[in-house]
Structure formats: structure tokens, C-alpha cells
């Protein structure tokens, strides 16, 4: 379980990105973060794994307060948190398999990671995960030869290689077309259900979030202004989150069963 208590972030400029955010995320629960640009959604995700340092508050993953850890212990605990990025954060010149195996960087000695030497069990699991995300036949391709949807699937497999207790997903569909976006959201939903894995998903597409998330948290100016199931997301709630607008035309899209920026160094810091 993830417990966030009175989490706040104020930058040196005096701008407040988060203000006393308190949330609990249970095992296997998918939570969608919605809200306008600048509402604090990405900041909240990055404060959880401390890519952004919170100003105050607590972030409990199980019985560990991540907000209070020193650098060495934080590195150890980050292995429990899988991160999936909007811009994939893959090493383009490496193969799909090598990118997936990089999810084990926090578990192997430096010299093994430098030489890209991994245990046989890690390699077996990587093949298993590539099969699960539908990319087994692309294992030996370079990452820069893949489509956007395929790259995002590699990112999902890489995060799962950490055997995480929590997934943080930052705008996973922002660079994808509508059909591929639904496929990626469906894959995330299925994987979290299979593994009892909680996930927080920062997502701009509200109808897509309504279709796939079981709980939505709406942020406005760094404050939680909505927390509930998608069925409770009324026009009044949307106005509270985003401001006045005609919300009558916004509806979740029809399901479709057919297939179809963060730099790499920062991604490696999270995984290491």
C-alpha cells in the first residue's frame, strides 16, 4: 500500500506545485491523475520516487517513509518502484532485450551492468515479459527501429523487470494515436490486475481515464479537488478540476480490440 500524507512542494521561486496532498493507494488499484497543465500531476509522481524533492510530508510505501531516506537507502527502495515515461526513455542504440534488462540495474553489481552481463534467470524473465507485452519477435531489434506504441511496451516490460511494488506512469499515451493509446491502457490494466500491482497514472485524456481507471484523482493548483470512481466525475466535478466549460460532448470512446520528456540518464537514476 502507498500512503501519501500532507505532501507539499514549493520551489525556490515561491511557486507551490503541491499543497497538503493526502492519498492512499491500495494493492492492485489503478488511480488516474487528471487535471489541467500545471496542476501538479507530474510533480506528485516525481515526489513519490524523489526525482523531485518534496518540501514536506510523508510518502509511505509499505512501512518505509521514502521522503526521509538518505541517498543510499533511497537507491535501494527505488527498486520497488517501476517508472514508465511519456517519452519512453529508452537507449536508442541498444536492442529491445538490452533495454528491458536495464530494469535490473538496481540489482546487479556495477561491473555487470557496465558489461551488460545478466544472470540467466534475468534473461529468461526478460523474454517472458517481452512475450507478455507482445514484442518477443522484436527482442533483437534496436529501440530506434520501433514504433511509438512498441517503445511504450518496452518501457512497460523494463519497469516490470524491477519486480516493483508500485508503478508510476507519466502520460503514457500523450505521444500515441487514439487506437494505440487504448491498447497501451488496456495492457497496463491487465498487467496490474494479474500482478495485484498498484499504479498511479498521470493522464490528460479524461475519456480514456474514465474507460480504464477504477479511481480518478483530480488536481487543481496542487490541491486534490476530486477523488472517486469515474462514474462520479460529473460536469460539476469537471468544472471544479478544469474550470467552466461545456462538458456535454465529452464521452469515453468505444472499445477497440484490434492491435495496432524524460532523458535516459534520469530514467537510469530511477532504476539504479
Keywords:
10 helices, Rossmann fold, alpha/beta, 21% strand, 4-stranded antiparallel beta sheet, 272 residues, single chain, 35% helix, 10 strands
Structure described in brief:
By secondary structure, the chain is of the alpha/beta class. It is 35% helix and 21% strand.
Amino-to-carboxy terminus distance: 22 Å
Question: CATH class, anyone?
Answer: Alpha Beta
Class from secondary-structure proportions: alpha/beta
Main beta-sheet annotation: 6 strands, mixed
Give unreliable regions as ranges. 253-265
Q: Strand sequence of the main sheet, in spatial order?
A: 6-7-8-3-9-10
The CATH homologous superfamily is named P-loop containing nucleotide triphosphate hydrolases
Q: What is the CATH architecture assignment? A: 3-Layer(aba) Sandwich
Give the helix proportion (percent range). 25-40%
Rg for CA atoms: 18 Å
Count of helical regions: 10
Number of strands: 10
Number of domains: 1
Layout: helices, strands, pairs:
Elements: E1 2-10, E2 16-25, E3 30-34, H1 41-48, E4 56-61, E5 64-65, H2 71-78, E6 81-84, H3 96-101, H4 110-115, H5 120-132, H6 148-160, E7 166-170, H7 178-195, E8 199-202, H8 206-212, E9 215-220, E10 223-228, H9 235-242, H10 264-271
Parallel strand pairs: 3-8, 3-9, 6-7, 7-8
Antiparallel strand pairs: 1-2, 1-4, 4-5, 9-10
Helix pairs in contact: 5-6, 6-7
Q: What does it look like?
A:
The chain is 35% helix and 21% strand. It has helices spanning 41-48, 71-78, 96-101, 110-115, 120-132, 148-160, 178-195, 206-212, 235-242, 264-271, and strands at 2-10, 16-25, 30-34, 56-61, 64-65, 81-84, 166-170, 199-202, 215-220, 223-228. It is globular and about 50 Å long. Residues 2-246 form the ABC transporter domain. InterPro entries: AAA+_ATPase, ABC_transporter-like_ATP-bd, ABC_transporter-like_CS, ABC_transpr_PhnC, MetN_ABC_transporter-like, P-loop_NTPase. This is Phosphonate transport system ATP-binding protein.
